[in-house]
Amino acid sequence: MDASDILDAGYALESTFATWCDDLLARAAPHLDLGLGVVLFVIEHDGPDGPTISANHTVGCAASLVDRLASALLESGGVHAASLGDAGVVEVWTMTLHDDTHKTLYLIAPSAQPIASSRTRKSTWDAVTSHLGRGLALHGRLTRSGARALVVHLAQAKREPTPTRVSAPSWDDVSQGRWSIVTRVEYDSRRWLVACANPADLADPRRLTPREDEAARLAMTGEAMKVIASDLDVATVTAAALVSRAMKKLGAITRGDLLALARLGPGFVLAPVDVRLVAFPEPRAKAVDGQLPRSEHAVAALSVQGLSNQEIAARLGRSVRTVANQLSSVYKKLRLASRNELAAWWRAMPTDSSSKRSS
Predict the structure, then answer these.
(1) Span 195-209, average pLDDT
(2) Which helix (H) or strand (E) holds 191?
(3) Are residues 59 and 17 located together in one domain of the fold?
(4) What is the Cα–Cα distance from 219 to 232, expressed in whole angstroms?
(5) In this predicted structure, what is the pLDDT of residue 285?
(6) pTM of the entire structure?
(7) What is the per-residue pLDDT for 289?
(8) How many angstroms separate the CA atoms of 38 and 293, rounded?
(9) If you ran DSSP here, which 8-state letter would residue 246 be given?
(10) What is the per-residue DSSP string for 261-283?
(11) Distance between CA atoms of residues 180 and 130, nearest Å
(12) Which residues pair with 179 in a beta bridge?
């Protein structure tokens, strides 16, 4: 099971609570729906009349069954299939999450058939549950700090006379799940990776397989997909799938994001909570004085404006082959792999375009 989407929702720390719940259910439901739908209940425990259901979020579950599940939760604190036999329920799968604000979340998937579960699947869901619990606790604490809470905490941490610093995790720490990537934020004219270290017995389920790890390392070198496929001794489509899965698990949009993970600077500890968040600065996009001659700079500048090779050739009075060769040279020098990555690099550079070209 690929838990990437589910954990990405769990670590969405700056969404509203209702959005957090909706997104979590939407991403978990395809993995959990056993034929009778999936329900996410939010129970408040601090009311004068005892526990109450403050919200429910459903996907494909009949209203009558939702009511039965809700009644069972309030009456006995759990859902037992034996009490739902007349509704066609044979077994019930339940995930329970607690935060520190007197809330409990129950993610429930009733089934009309016995639920088959392998040891591997159970182990994966146990880890997902633990990580979602951490995400819920972090979400509750950060949202009490108001909008853009992560940036607020990062700004405060940097202003401390003696801020708590943490060495950056290694590539292996991230790729093997010893650290969890939470999000990326923009602050102080650069991008920061927000992450948290995991206990030894709680590796992130999004960790890379050995083949995904190998493919990601090759992708960071800027090699073409055909070369990566050759090095891995697999078909090009298989290599592309491995790189794509690795990037998805690591929250990387471009190959440059993968490279940034391997070059993080020392981080700042954010607000002290049970699960300690750390913000690590990603390497700044560096000027490449002396690397791009004017002829290549002109081609790159038009490329990031969205012009095709044919249009660039017509604009500059060059052949299409020359433009293609010059673009390839730009990619190689800047360690990029595509027009999209070139555009992202270009946007990150200083506005003075002279810093991007040489004479």
Answers:
(1) 92
(2) strand 190-197
(3) yes
(4) 11
(5) 52
(6) 0.73
(7) 43
(8) 58
(9) H
(10) HTTPPPEEE-S--SS-EEEEEPP
(11) 12
(12) 197
